[in-house]
Amino acid sequence: MSVEPRTKSPATGTAPGELIRLDQVTKRFGANTVLDHLDFSVQSGKHVTLIGPSGSGKTTILRLLMTLTEPDEGTITVDGEPLFPAPEKQVREVRKKIGMVFQQFNLFPNMSVLRNITEAPVQVLGMSKDEAEARARELLELVGLTDKCDAKPTRLSGGQQQRVAIARALAMRPKVLLLDEVTSALDPELVAGVLDLLRDIARSTDITMLCVTHEMGFARDISDQVLMFDGGRIIESGPPEQIFGDPEQDRTREFLGAVL
Ligand code: ADP
User: Fold this and answer.
1) Which of 26, 152, 211, 248 is most buried (CB neighbours < 10 A)?
2) Atom of ligand 1 nearest to the CA of 50
3) What total of structural domains would you count in the chain?
């Protein structure tokens, strides 16, 4: 299913304004076809939410974009550059444009909060330590954790750890932020604060967001477009008012009925 107009520019392989593009992407784990000839694209600056039942392939898409796994068939393009198939050196360059926040935070436990945020800008982007620290302090202010610079992640609550993970992703100034069920591992009372922070980021930056979430209120608030997955395919897509208010597919209605 095509989610955005698919007129290719011969120079870049993407349509104008298109930041992410998947063409006929298939991913199998053994006999299990997890993504089945998937086509979709995301326009620059848009917020796209992936919803659907567990096991429908949503996280696999984020993992493909992070190059944590490779497709069996198809092509993936980011910002006009091939991410798959592509030579290793090019993949490294394209990967710099993508940040990801995981369900389980994945912070470096032996590094301070500040170092968690400065490590990749210094090591990967070659930023000076001073510049990286200044940027990290700005980001810690944004996420409300200026007083935790020197703390080790294990001393923080889950909500605070996830705020650090968000700051760490933003420190790389990515064009795209991938969010994989970022509140699923949090105690219920910490969920709202993290979602509010992400709402602020969505409102106040031009960063493109691709979110997998079970938080339907959040999806409704931030999304320009919602993609409903089932069995490795997009079965329906549209603006949140349509998907949540008047879905076309029975399967979407059934899914929303179970989670809302
Ligand atoms: P969702 O995010 O929609 O819950 P996933 O993308 O995580 O779905 O998983 C889709 C399917 O792929 C599931 O059936 C899952 O068991 C399978 N899967 C995901 N990762 C692996 C893996 N590393 N090895 C084998 N199967 C996997």
Assistant:
1) 211
2) 3
3) 1
Tell me the average pLDDT across 231-260. Answer: 96
- Would residue 203 count as lying in a domain? no
- Residue written as token pair 């609550």: 157
The structure tokens 């970022």 sit at 182
What ipTM does the predicted assembly reach? 0.98
Residue nearest to atom 6 of ligand 1 (CA): 57
Q: How far apart are CA 67 and CA 190, in angstroms?
A: 30
Residue nearest to atom 20 of ligand 1 (CA): 60
Q: 130 near 107, Cβ under 8 Å? A: no
Q: What are the helix and strand counts (H, E) for the chain?
A: 9, 10
Q: What 3-state DSSP class applies to 49?
A: strand
Token pair recorded at residue 257:
């009925």
Question: By residue range, what is the domain housing residue 135?
Answer: 107-173
Residue 93 has pLDDT above 60, yes or no: yes
Instruction: Determine the distance separating the centroid of ligand 1 and the alpha carbon of 67, expressed in angstroms.
Output: 15
| Closest Cα to atom 15 of ligand 1 | 55
pLDDT in tens, 114-127: 999 999 999 999 99
Query: What is the pLDDT averaged over residues 86-96?
Result: 94
Alpha carbons 241 and 226: distance in angstroms, whole number: 9
Q: Which atom of ligand 1 is nearest to the CA of 229?
A: 3
Residue 180 within a domain: no
- Tell me, yes or no, whether 117 lies in a domain: yes
The predicted-structure confidence for 35-71, as pLDDT tens digits, reads as follows 999 999 999 999 999 999 999 999 999 999 999 999 9
- 114 found inside a domain: yes
